Amino acid sequence: MPATIGDWYRLSDPELDDDRLTKRRLSAEKLTSRLTGANAIPLEIVSLAVETFGSPGISSNAALPVAIQAIEEQQPTADKDALSLALDPRILSAFAVDQALGGSLGTRQSRQGSIALLAGAVTAALRHRAPPTGAFAATRMRGLLESAEQVLNTFDVRRRERKGSPSKHFAEAAADQTADWRKVVGEALREVEEDASKDREELEALWWVFGEYSYKLMKPYADLNPAAASVTAGVELAEIVSPPATLGMTAIASRMMRIVPAGNEEKPLATLLEEISEEAWALVTPAAGDKDFVQRHPVVFPISLVATRREQAGGIPDFNSLITGWSPDANSSGSMLAAQVFAERSLLRAAVRPKSGR
Q1: Where does the source fall among the domains of life (predicted)?
Q2: What φ, ψ does residue 98 adopt, rounded to 5°?
Q3: What pLDDT, in 10s, does the model give residues 173-227?
Q4: Are strands 213-214 and 219-220 parallel, antiparallel or unpaired?
Q5: For residue 149, is pLDDT > 70?
Q6: For the whole model, what pTM was predicted?
Q7: Which phi and psi (to 5°) does residue 268 adopt?
Q8: CA 272 – CA 229 distance, rounded (Å)
Q9: What does the alpha-carbon distance between residue 213 and residue 1 come to, in Å, rounded to a whole number?
């Protein structure tokens, strides 16, 4: 279950009292209710929430005034300018995301809906991020990531679900003389189409991983270096399967690295990025229409941001100029990079080019 709001606010306020917590809880309920709607909002709120764990603030974050408004509704005398720089709206956003994720468990959500986007954005931002200083903050970040992964696990389960034979609809309709046969046939066909789509995705993913061949670079994966193979695997799998980037599908992306020589060898992230070939960089660089979106959400799309800035600057940019929360000196591997690119590309596919979900 999500942590209580008191646990979150001990990050900034050890001297808690019931009145302030009550107001903060009401503000969080307001903010949670506003997380649905436009596809960009879940990513904005996650970007703001991640600032709780040490990222510099982004003045253009559209979620900040929404969070401040939720606070002002319960605390009318609050200083708006001070709030824009304070931890309060960041912590409130993190708690609201945690509540929304936890509240979605047990309910059937669309794979293209706001909850799927929230879970995908949290995992893309936090799964490979260095933990913040302080055990308490690290615990809160880990709990938020676990909430997101629980949600993604429910989508993994649904990938494996099948409706079964449509004959049950016809049998039930035959026993009901008032049945609307047009509706019965339509429902049966919808379920057959849904099952067929899931089967097709699974088969394509299996053919891809066992074929061990890059259909974009037209080369066996074993002939690629680990860095090029990792980003290529993430991009290709994100095109094969529908969002979100669930844990089961992420494991398939990482599995491809087993056949690449030294595919799971750890080395500093900056070194790994330097080893990516030009043709692989071309694959992972976002499309022209996606670049602005990536640059507005640097903590959610760290690798895509590096690719974008690399294209603009003609070389890998200084990490200190990027607001990603990633360290160039942190150890990384091909499997980790494949999983991260898969998560980012799946999220771009869902948020920028959404389709009706299942």
Answers
A1: Bacteria
A2: -60, -45
A3: 666 666 676 776 777 777 777 888 888 888 999 999 999 999 999 999 999 999 9
A4: antiparallel
A5: yes
A6: 0.86
A7: -55, 145
A8: 11
A9: 42
